[in-house]
Amino acid sequence: MTATPDQGKITGAAGDQGEIVGIAPAPDGPVSIIDYNERIPNNVGLATDRKLQRALQAWQPKFLDWWASLGPSVPTRDVYLRTAIAVGRDGWANFARVPMEQYRWGIFLSERNPDRTVGFGRHLGEPAWQEVPGEYRADLRRLLVVQGDTEPASVEQQRHLGMTAPSLYDMRNLFQVNVEEGRHLWAMVYLLHAYFGRDGRDEAEQLLQRNSGDADKPRILGAFNEETTDWLSFFMFTYFTDRDGKYQLGTLKESGFDPLARTCEFMLREEAHHMFVGTTGVQRTVERTAALMAAHDTDDLWDYGGIPLPVIQKYLNFQFSVSLDLFGSETSSNVASYYTAGLKGRWMETRRKDDHLLADVTREIPVVTGGAITTRTVPMLTALNLDLRNEYMQDCARGIRRWNRELEQAGLPHRLTLPHEGFNRKVGAFAGHWVSPSGELLEQSGWERRSAGWLPTPEDRARVAALMTPHYEPGEFASWIAPPGVGINDLPVEYDYVRF
Protein backbone atom coordinates (compact mmCIF):
# COMPACT_ATOMS: atom_id res chain seq x y z
CA MET A 1 0.00 0.00 0.00
CA THR A 2 1.67 3.18 -1.15
CA ALA A 3 -0.88 5.92 -0.61
CA THR A 4 -1.70 8.03 2.47
CA PRO A 5 -0.89 5.23 4.92
CA ASP A 6 -1.85 7.38 7.89
CA GLN A 7 -5.49 7.53 6.85
CA GLY A 8 -7.65 4.80 8.42
CA LYS A 9 -10.96 4.68 10.23
CA ILE A 10 -11.23 5.68 13.88
CA THR A 11 -12.51 2.65 15.76
CA GLY A 12 -13.13 4.12 19.16
CA ALA A 13 -12.86 7.08 21.46
CA ALA A 14 -12.55 6.98 25.21
CA GLY A 15 -12.87 10.15 27.22
CA ASP A 16 -11.55 13.35 25.66
CA GLN A 17 -9.82 13.82 22.32
CA GLY A 18 -6.51 12.91 23.89
CA GLU A 19 -7.63 9.29 24.16
CA ILE A 20 -8.67 8.84 20.54
CA VAL A 21 -6.93 5.89 18.92
CA GLY A 22 -7.41 4.32 15.53
CA ILE A 23 -6.27 1.44 13.40
CA ALA A 24 -5.27 1.12 9.79
CA PRO A 25 -7.26 -1.22 7.50
CA ALA A 26 -6.93 -4.89 8.44
CA PRO A 27 -4.48 -6.87 6.29
CA ASP A 28 -5.78 -9.30 3.71
CA GLY A 29 -2.73 -11.58 3.80
CA PRO A 30 -0.78 -13.62 6.36
CA VAL A 31 -0.47 -11.83 9.68
CA SER A 32 2.38 -12.02 12.18
CA ILE A 33 1.54 -10.41 15.52
CA ILE A 34 4.23 -8.23 17.07
CA ASP A 35 5.03 -9.04 20.70
CA TYR A 36 4.90 -5.78 22.67
CA ASN A 37 5.42 -7.54 25.99
CA GLU A 38 9.08 -7.90 25.11
CA ARG A 39 11.59 -5.23 26.12
CA ILE A 40 12.33 -4.97 22.38
CA PRO A 41 9.06 -5.43 20.42
CA ASN A 42 9.56 -7.94 17.62
CA ASN A 43 8.04 -10.65 15.46
CA VAL A 44 11.29 -12.59 15.01
CA GLY A 45 11.13 -14.76 18.14
CA LEU A 46 13.85 -12.81 19.89
CA ALA A 47 13.02 -14.45 23.24
CA THR A 48 14.20 -17.81 21.87
CA ASP A 49 17.74 -16.53 21.18
CA ARG A 50 19.05 -15.30 24.52
CA LYS A 51 22.51 -14.39 23.21
CA LEU A 52 21.09 -12.18 20.46
CA GLN A 53 18.51 -10.76 22.85
CA ARG A 54 21.20 -9.74 25.35
CA ALA A 55 23.32 -8.16 22.60
CA LEU A 56 20.42 -6.06 21.34
CA GLN A 57 19.36 -5.12 24.85
CA ALA A 58 22.92 -3.87 25.41
CA TRP A 59 22.65 -1.76 22.22
CA GLN A 60 19.22 -0.38 23.12
CA PRO A 61 20.38 2.14 25.80
CA LYS A 62 22.95 3.50 23.37
CA PHE A 63 20.22 4.04 20.81
CA LEU A 64 18.07 5.82 23.40
CA ASP A 65 21.02 8.03 24.35
CA TRP A 66 21.51 8.87 20.67
CA TRP A 67 17.80 9.70 20.33
CA ALA A 68 17.90 11.93 23.41
CA SER A 69 20.98 13.84 22.21
CA LEU A 70 20.45 13.96 18.42
CA GLY A 71 16.75 13.24 17.94
CA PRO A 72 14.01 15.92 17.88
CA SER A 73 15.07 18.87 20.01
CA VAL A 74 11.60 20.25 20.83
CA PRO A 75 10.33 18.91 24.17
CA THR A 76 6.83 17.47 23.90
CA ARG A 77 4.40 15.72 26.21
CA ASP A 78 3.00 13.34 23.63
CA VAL A 79 2.43 13.00 19.89
CA TYR A 80 -0.34 11.29 17.93
CA LEU A 81 1.70 8.53 16.29
CA ARG A 82 1.25 5.37 14.29
CA THR A 83 2.82 2.18 15.68
CA ALA A 84 2.88 -1.16 13.88
CA ILE A 85 1.12 -3.95 15.78
CA ALA A 86 1.07 -6.72 13.18
CA VAL A 87 2.62 -7.60 9.83
CA GLY A 88 0.71 -8.59 6.71
CA ARG A 89 0.65 -7.72 3.04
CA ASP A 90 -1.10 -4.44 3.87
CA GLY A 91 0.33 -3.93 7.34
CA TRP A 92 -1.69 -3.07 10.43
CA ALA A 93 -0.99 -0.10 12.69
CA ASN A 94 -2.41 1.51 15.81
CA PHE A 95 -2.74 5.27 16.29
CA ALA A 96 -2.48 6.79 19.77
CA ARG A 97 -0.88 9.58 21.76
CA VAL A 98 2.63 8.51 22.69
CA PRO A 99 5.44 10.30 24.57
CA MET A 100 8.17 10.09 21.94
CA GLU A 101 10.83 8.88 24.34
CA GLN A 102 8.50 5.95 25.11
CA TYR A 103 7.87 5.02 21.48
CA ARG A 104 8.27 1.25 21.05
CA TRP A 105 10.99 0.86 18.44
CA GLY A 106 11.18 -2.75 17.40
CA ILE A 107 12.18 -5.39 14.86
CA PHE A 108 9.58 -6.33 12.27
CA LEU A 109 9.95 -8.54 9.21
CA SER A 110 7.29 -9.36 6.65
CA GLU A 111 5.94 -12.89 6.63
CA ARG A 112 8.28 -15.56 5.31
CA ASN A 113 7.30 -17.34 2.11
CA PRO A 114 8.76 -20.87 2.47
CA ASP A 115 8.64 -21.32 -1.30
CA ARG A 116 10.54 -18.14 -2.16
CA THR A 117 13.50 -18.56 -4.53
CA VAL A 118 16.33 -16.32 -5.66
CA GLY A 119 14.90 -14.30 -8.54
CA PHE A 120 17.99 -13.29 -10.52
CA GLY A 121 21.68 -13.92 -11.10
CA ARG A 122 23.67 -17.12 -11.01
CA HIS A 123 21.52 -18.56 -8.19
CA LEU A 124 18.27 -18.00 -10.10
CA GLY A 125 15.62 -20.50 -8.97
CA GLU A 126 17.51 -21.73 -5.90
CA PRO A 127 15.79 -21.53 -2.49
CA ALA A 128 16.24 -18.10 -0.90
CA TRP A 129 18.96 -18.07 1.75
CA GLN A 130 18.01 -18.02 5.42
CA GLU A 131 21.66 -17.60 6.44
CA VAL A 132 24.42 -15.48 4.92
CA PRO A 133 26.46 -17.39 2.32
CA GLY A 134 30.10 -17.19 3.39
CA GLU A 135 31.32 -15.93 0.01
CA TYR A 136 28.92 -12.98 0.15
CA ARG A 137 29.36 -12.04 3.79
CA ALA A 138 31.45 -8.90 3.27
CA ASP A 139 29.27 -7.58 0.43
CA LEU A 140 26.03 -8.10 2.33
CA ARG A 141 27.45 -6.47 5.43
CA ARG A 142 28.48 -3.42 3.39
CA LEU A 143 25.02 -3.11 1.84
CA LEU A 144 23.43 -3.21 5.30
CA VAL A 145 25.83 -0.64 6.73
CA VAL A 146 25.30 1.88 3.93
CA GLN A 147 21.51 1.51 4.13
CA GLY A 148 21.55 1.60 7.92
CA ASP A 149 23.70 4.73 8.00
CA THR A 150 21.06 6.75 6.15
CA GLU A 151 18.31 6.10 8.72
CA PRO A 152 19.67 7.97 11.77
CA ALA A 153 21.30 10.56 9.50
CA SER A 154 17.99 12.04 8.39
CA VAL A 155 16.80 12.27 12.01
CA GLU A 156 19.96 14.21 12.85
CA GLN A 157 19.47 16.52 9.87
CA GLN A 158 15.90 17.30 10.91
CA ARG A 159 16.26 17.50 14.70
CA HIS A 160 15.61 21.26 15.05
CA LEU A 161 12.74 21.55 12.57
CA GLY A 162 10.10 21.22 15.27
CA MET A 163 11.16 24.63 16.57
CA THR A 164 9.77 26.25 13.39
CA ALA A 165 6.89 23.89 12.56
CA PRO A 166 4.22 25.56 10.38
CA SER A 167 1.47 23.65 12.23
CA LEU A 168 0.87 20.85 14.73
CA TYR A 169 -0.23 18.68 11.79
CA ASP A 170 3.15 19.15 10.12
CA MET A 171 5.09 18.73 13.36
CA ARG A 172 3.31 15.43 13.94
CA ASN A 173 4.22 14.26 10.43
CA LEU A 174 7.86 15.21 11.04
CA PHE A 175 7.92 13.19 14.25
CA GLN A 176 6.24 10.22 12.57
CA VAL A 177 8.98 10.23 9.94
CA ASN A 178 11.64 10.52 12.66
CA VAL A 179 10.45 7.63 14.82
CA GLU A 180 10.10 5.39 11.78
CA GLU A 181 13.60 6.24 10.57
CA GLY A 182 14.72 5.22 14.06
CA ARG A 183 12.87 1.93 13.64
CA HIS A 184 14.52 1.39 10.27
CA LEU A 185 17.86 1.75 12.01
CA TRP A 186 16.74 -1.00 14.39
CA ALA A 187 15.90 -3.18 11.37
CA MET A 188 19.44 -2.95 9.99
CA VAL A 189 21.01 -3.36 13.44
CA TYR A 190 19.02 -6.55 14.01
CA LEU A 191 20.36 -8.05 10.79
CA LEU A 192 23.92 -7.04 11.64
CA HIS A 193 23.67 -8.57 15.12
CA ALA A 194 21.78 -11.69 14.09
CA TYR A 195 23.80 -12.70 11.04
CA PHE A 196 27.25 -11.09 11.15
CA GLY A 197 28.66 -11.87 14.59
CA ARG A 198 31.32 -9.64 16.11
CA ASP A 199 31.83 -7.69 12.87
CA GLY A 200 28.12 -6.94 12.74
CA ARG A 201 28.05 -5.79 16.35
CA ASP A 202 31.00 -3.47 15.70
CA GLU A 203 29.26 -2.00 12.66
CA ALA A 204 26.08 -1.45 14.69
CA GLU A 205 28.10 0.56 17.20
CA GLN A 206 29.54 2.70 14.41
CA LEU A 207 26.06 3.55 13.13
CA LEU A 208 25.64 5.62 16.30
CA GLN A 209 29.17 7.02 16.25
CA ARG A 210 28.89 8.71 12.85
CA ASN A 211 26.80 11.88 12.80
CA SER A 212 25.39 13.98 9.98
CA GLY A 213 27.78 16.79 9.04
CA ASP A 214 30.40 15.79 11.63
CA ALA A 215 33.84 16.95 10.46
CA ASP A 216 35.59 13.84 11.82
CA LYS A 217 32.92 11.13 11.52
CA PRO A 218 30.37 12.15 8.88
CA ARG A 219 27.66 9.95 7.47
CA ILE A 220 28.70 7.76 4.55
CA LEU A 221 26.65 9.38 1.77
CA GLY A 222 27.01 13.05 0.93
CA ALA A 223 23.31 13.97 0.80
CA PHE A 224 23.00 12.89 4.43
CA ASN A 225 25.59 15.43 5.54
CA GLU A 226 23.70 18.37 4.02
CA GLU A 227 21.84 20.68 6.38
CA THR A 228 18.06 20.60 6.39
CA THR A 229 17.75 24.32 7.00
CA ASP A 230 13.98 24.84 6.85
CA TRP A 231 10.65 23.16 6.15
CA LEU A 232 10.83 23.62 2.40
CA SER A 233 14.12 21.72 2.52
CA PHE A 234 12.44 19.05 4.63
CA PHE A 235 9.58 18.61 2.20
CA MET A 236 11.99 18.43 -0.74
CA PHE A 237 14.11 15.92 1.20
CA THR A 238 11.16 13.66 1.98
CA TYR A 239 10.01 13.86 -1.63
CA PHE A 240 13.31 13.39 -3.45
CA THR A 241 15.79 11.82 -1.03
CA ASP A 242 13.36 9.52 0.75
CA ARG A 243 12.21 8.47 -2.72
CA ASP A 244 15.79 7.41 -3.43
CA GLY A 245 15.46 5.33 -0.25
CA LYS A 246 12.32 3.73 -1.65
CA TYR A 247 14.19 2.60 -4.75
CA GLN A 248 17.24 1.37 -2.85
CA LEU A 249 15.00 -0.61 -0.49
CA GLY A 250 13.15 -1.94 -3.53
CA THR A 251 16.35 -3.46 -4.91
CA LEU A 252 17.22 -5.00 -1.53
CA LYS A 253 13.67 -6.38 -1.23
CA GLU A 254 14.60 -8.63 -4.17
CA SER A 255 17.70 -9.99 -2.39
CA GLY A 256 18.35 -13.71 -2.26
CA PHE A 257 19.13 -13.21 1.45
CA ASP A 258 15.57 -13.67 2.69
CA PRO A 259 15.77 -11.88 6.08
CA LEU A 260 17.01 -8.75 4.29
CA ALA A 261 14.27 -9.01 1.66
CA ARG A 262 11.57 -9.38 4.32
CA THR A 263 12.97 -6.51 6.37
CA CYS A 264 12.95 -4.15 3.40
CA GLU A 265 9.46 -5.19 2.33
CA PHE A 266 8.07 -4.00 5.66
CA MET A 267 10.22 -0.85 5.67
CA LEU A 268 8.76 0.12 2.30
CA ARG A 269 5.27 0.23 3.80
CA GLU A 270 6.43 2.76 6.38
CA GLU A 271 8.50 4.68 3.83
CA ALA A 272 5.35 5.44 1.84
CA HIS A 273 4.22 7.90 4.52
CA HIS A 274 7.53 9.76 4.33
CA MET A 275 7.08 10.40 0.63
CA PHE A 276 3.44 11.35 1.21
CA VAL A 277 4.70 14.03 3.61
CA GLY A 278 7.06 15.37 0.94
CA THR A 279 4.57 15.19 -1.92
CA THR A 280 1.79 16.95 -0.07
CA GLY A 281 4.11 19.35 1.76
CA VAL A 282 5.49 20.76 -1.48
CA GLN A 283 2.02 20.68 -3.04
CA ARG A 284 0.57 22.74 -0.18
CA THR A 285 3.47 25.18 -0.44
CA VAL A 286 2.88 25.58 -4.18
CA GLU A 287 -0.87 25.92 -3.57
CA ARG A 288 -0.27 28.83 -1.19
CA THR A 289 2.29 30.43 -3.50
CA ALA A 290 -0.11 30.14 -6.45
CA ALA A 291 -2.93 31.74 -4.46
CA LEU A 292 -0.70 34.66 -3.46
CA MET A 293 0.58 35.11 -7.03
CA ALA A 294 -2.96 35.18 -8.37
CA ALA A 295 -4.13 37.58 -5.67
CA HIS A 296 -1.25 40.06 -5.97
CA ASP A 297 -0.25 39.60 -9.62
CA THR A 298 3.43 39.13 -8.78
CA ASP A 299 5.91 36.37 -8.05
CA ASP A 300 7.76 38.53 -5.50
CA LEU A 301 5.91 37.18 -2.48
CA TRP A 302 8.25 37.83 0.43
CA ASP A 303 6.24 40.80 1.68
CA TYR A 304 3.04 38.76 1.47
CA GLY A 305 4.40 35.92 3.63
CA GLY A 306 4.87 33.45 0.77
CA ILE A 307 7.78 31.65 -0.89
CA PRO A 308 8.34 32.84 -4.48
CA LEU A 309 7.95 30.15 -7.12
CA PRO A 310 11.49 30.70 -8.51
CA VAL A 311 12.87 29.91 -5.03
CA ILE A 312 10.78 26.74 -4.83
CA GLN A 313 12.26 25.77 -8.21
CA LYS A 314 15.78 26.36 -6.89
CA TYR A 315 15.15 24.16 -3.86
CA LEU A 316 13.76 21.51 -6.19
CA ASN A 317 16.85 21.72 -8.43
CA PHE A 318 19.18 21.29 -5.48
CA GLN A 319 17.46 18.35 -3.78
CA PHE A 320 16.86 16.47 -7.02
CA SER A 321 20.49 16.79 -8.09
CA VAL A 322 22.01 15.71 -4.78
CA SER A 323 19.55 12.81 -4.64
CA LEU A 324 20.65 11.63 -8.11
CA ASP A 325 24.20 11.40 -6.76
CA LEU A 326 22.98 8.79 -4.26
CA PHE A 327 22.55 6.33 -7.13
CA GLY A 328 26.30 6.33 -7.78
CA SER A 329 28.08 6.22 -11.11
CA GLU A 330 26.21 5.14 -14.23
CA THR A 331 28.45 2.09 -14.48
CA SER A 332 29.56 -0.04 -11.56
CA SER A 333 31.32 -3.38 -11.47
CA ASN A 334 30.29 -3.74 -7.81
CA VAL A 335 26.60 -3.47 -8.66
CA ALA A 336 27.08 -5.97 -11.48
CA SER A 337 28.64 -8.36 -8.96
CA TYR A 338 25.81 -7.82 -6.47
CA TYR A 339 23.26 -8.65 -9.16
CA THR A 340 25.04 -11.71 -10.46
CA ALA A 341 25.48 -13.00 -6.91
CA GLY A 342 21.77 -12.53 -6.13
CA LEU A 343 22.36 -9.91 -3.42
CA LYS A 344 20.64 -6.85 -4.90
CA GLY A 345 18.15 -6.92 -7.75
CA ARG A 346 16.45 -4.37 -9.96
CA TRP A 347 13.37 -2.37 -9.11
CA MET A 348 10.37 -4.69 -9.57
CA GLU A 349 12.69 -7.51 -10.58
CA THR A 350 10.00 -10.19 -10.59
CA ARG A 351 7.88 -8.15 -13.05
CA ARG A 352 10.68 -7.80 -15.60
CA LYS A 353 10.18 -9.81 -18.77
CA ASP A 354 13.72 -11.01 -19.41
CA ASP A 355 16.02 -13.86 -18.36
CA HIS A 356 17.10 -12.18 -15.05
CA LEU A 357 20.70 -12.95 -15.95
CA LEU A 358 21.48 -10.06 -18.35
CA ALA A 359 24.72 -11.63 -19.51
CA ASP A 360 24.22 -10.67 -23.17
CA VAL A 361 22.24 -7.44 -22.75
CA THR A 362 23.62 -3.95 -23.40
CA ARG A 363 22.33 -0.42 -22.91
CA GLU A 364 23.28 3.16 -23.66
CA ILE A 365 24.64 5.39 -20.90
CA PRO A 366 25.28 9.15 -21.02
CA VAL A 367 28.85 10.42 -21.35
CA VAL A 368 30.42 13.83 -21.84
CA THR A 369 33.06 13.82 -24.53
CA GLY A 370 34.39 16.29 -27.05
CA GLY A 371 32.45 19.12 -25.47
CA ALA A 372 29.09 17.39 -25.95
CA ILE A 373 26.71 15.09 -24.08
CA THR A 374 26.42 11.83 -25.96
CA THR A 375 26.09 8.12 -25.18
CA ARG A 376 28.07 4.92 -25.31
CA THR A 377 27.08 1.26 -25.15
CA VAL A 378 27.99 -0.82 -22.10
CA PRO A 379 26.96 -4.23 -20.70
CA MET A 380 23.60 -3.94 -18.96
CA LEU A 381 25.00 -5.60 -15.84
CA THR A 382 27.36 -2.69 -15.26
CA ALA A 383 24.63 -0.10 -15.90
CA LEU A 384 22.13 -1.15 -13.23
CA ASN A 385 22.64 2.07 -11.27
CA LEU A 386 21.40 3.97 -14.30
CA ASP A 387 18.48 1.58 -14.73
CA LEU A 388 17.41 2.32 -11.15
CA ARG A 389 18.02 6.04 -11.51
CA ASN A 390 15.82 6.21 -14.59
CA GLU A 391 12.98 4.46 -12.72
CA TYR A 392 13.39 7.03 -9.95
CA MET A 393 13.37 10.00 -12.33
CA GLN A 394 10.13 8.83 -13.94
CA ASP A 395 8.58 8.55 -10.48
CA CYS A 396 9.79 12.05 -9.52
CA ALA A 397 8.18 13.49 -12.66
CA ARG A 398 4.75 12.33 -11.50
CA GLY A 399 4.98 14.54 -8.42
CA ILE A 400 5.99 17.54 -10.52
CA ARG A 401 2.83 17.10 -12.59
CA ARG A 402 0.78 17.04 -9.39
CA TRP A 403 2.37 20.27 -8.13
CA ASN A 404 1.86 21.95 -11.49
CA ARG A 405 -1.86 21.26 -11.33
CA GLU A 406 -1.98 23.74 -8.43
CA LEU A 407 -0.51 26.41 -10.70
CA GLU A 408 -2.85 25.47 -13.53
CA GLN A 409 -5.91 25.57 -11.27
CA ALA A 410 -4.88 29.05 -10.09
CA GLY A 411 -4.88 30.20 -13.73
CA LEU A 412 -1.11 30.74 -13.82
CA PRO A 413 1.12 29.95 -16.82
CA HIS A 414 4.15 29.10 -14.66
CA ARG A 415 5.33 25.48 -14.27
CA LEU A 416 7.92 23.67 -12.15
CA THR A 417 10.34 21.37 -13.97
CA LEU A 418 12.90 18.71 -13.16
CA PRO A 419 16.41 19.83 -14.11
CA HIS A 420 18.53 17.82 -16.52
CA GLU A 421 20.12 14.73 -14.99
CA GLY A 422 23.56 16.28 -15.50
CA PHE A 423 22.84 19.45 -13.54
CA ASN A 424 24.89 20.09 -10.38
CA ARG A 425 26.27 16.57 -10.25
CA LYS A 426 29.20 15.46 -8.10
CA VAL A 427 29.10 11.74 -8.93
CA GLY A 428 29.13 9.85 -12.23
CA ALA A 429 29.47 10.84 -15.88
CA PHE A 430 28.50 14.48 -15.30
CA ALA A 431 30.81 15.12 -12.34
CA GLY A 432 33.31 17.84 -13.21
CA HIS A 433 31.11 19.14 -16.03
CA TRP A 434 28.92 22.23 -15.95
CA VAL A 435 25.44 21.40 -17.19
CA SER A 436 22.55 23.86 -16.98
CA PRO A 437 19.08 22.79 -15.80
CA SER A 438 17.99 22.68 -19.44
CA GLY A 439 20.87 20.35 -20.36
CA GLU A 440 23.21 22.89 -21.96
CA LEU A 441 26.92 22.09 -21.47
CA LEU A 442 28.69 25.26 -20.30
CA GLU A 443 32.10 26.51 -19.29
CA GLN A 444 32.64 26.60 -15.54
CA SER A 445 32.79 30.39 -15.43
CA GLY A 446 29.52 30.76 -17.31
CA TRP A 447 27.79 28.18 -15.11
CA GLU A 448 28.97 29.88 -11.92
CA ARG A 449 27.77 33.29 -13.12
CA ARG A 450 24.27 31.91 -13.64
CA SER A 451 24.11 29.46 -10.72
CA ALA A 452 22.38 31.95 -8.39
CA GLY A 453 19.36 31.66 -10.66
CA TRP A 454 19.37 27.88 -10.43
CA LEU A 455 20.33 26.96 -6.86
CA PRO A 456 19.33 28.47 -3.51
CA THR A 457 21.62 31.32 -2.52
CA PRO A 458 22.44 32.18 1.10
CA GLU A 459 20.01 35.10 0.74
CA ASP A 460 17.26 32.77 -0.51
CA ARG A 461 17.75 30.44 2.43
CA ALA A 462 17.84 33.35 4.89
CA ARG A 463 14.58 34.75 3.54
CA VAL A 464 12.90 31.35 3.62
CA ALA A 465 14.20 30.87 7.17
CA ALA A 466 12.68 34.23 8.15
CA LEU A 467 9.24 32.83 7.24
CA MET A 468 9.77 29.77 9.43
CA THR A 469 7.97 30.93 12.55
CA PRO A 470 6.37 28.26 14.75
CA HIS A 471 2.60 27.78 14.81
CA TYR A 472 1.61 25.59 17.75
CA GLU A 473 -2.10 26.35 18.09
CA PRO A 474 -4.42 23.61 16.78
CA GLY A 475 -5.70 24.49 13.31
CA GLU A 476 -3.20 27.34 12.84
CA PHE A 477 -0.91 27.33 9.79
CA ALA A 478 2.02 29.48 8.71
CA SER A 479 1.44 32.07 6.01
CA TRP A 480 3.56 30.25 3.41
CA ILE A 481 1.70 26.92 3.34
CA ALA A 482 -1.90 25.89 2.74
CA PRO A 483 -3.71 23.59 5.21
CA PRO A 484 -4.21 19.97 4.13
CA GLY A 485 -7.59 18.83 2.88
CA VAL A 486 -7.94 16.13 5.55
CA GLY A 487 -6.36 15.32 8.89
CA ILE A 488 -4.57 12.21 10.10
CA ASN A 489 -6.56 8.99 10.52
CA ASP A 490 -9.86 10.82 9.86
CA LEU A 491 -9.23 13.29 12.69
CA PRO A 492 -9.90 16.99 12.05
CA VAL A 493 -7.13 19.12 10.61
CA GLU A 494 -7.57 21.26 13.76
CA TYR A 495 -6.81 18.35 16.12
CA ASP A 496 -3.98 18.90 18.63
CA TYR A 497 -1.67 16.27 17.17
CA VAL A 498 1.22 17.35 19.43
CA ARG A 499 0.90 18.34 23.08
CA PHE A 500 3.57 20.15 25.09
What is the name of the CATH topology? Answer: Ribonucleotide Reductase, subunit A
Rg from C-alpha positions? Answer: 23 Å
Q: Supply the number of helical segments.
A: 11
Annotation, overall tally of beta strands: 10
The amount of beta strand, in percent, is: 5-15%
Name of the CATH superfamily: Ribonucleotide Reductase, subunit A
Helix content: 40-55%
Residue runs with pLDDT of under 50 for 5 or more positions: 1-29
Q: What is the straight-line distance between the termini?
A: 32 Å
Q: From the 3D coordinates, which CATH architecture would you assign? A: Orthogonal Bundle
Output mean pLDDT: 92
* Molecular shape: globular
Integer count of domains: 1
- Report the CATH C-level class: Mainly Alpha
**Structural class category:** alpha+beta
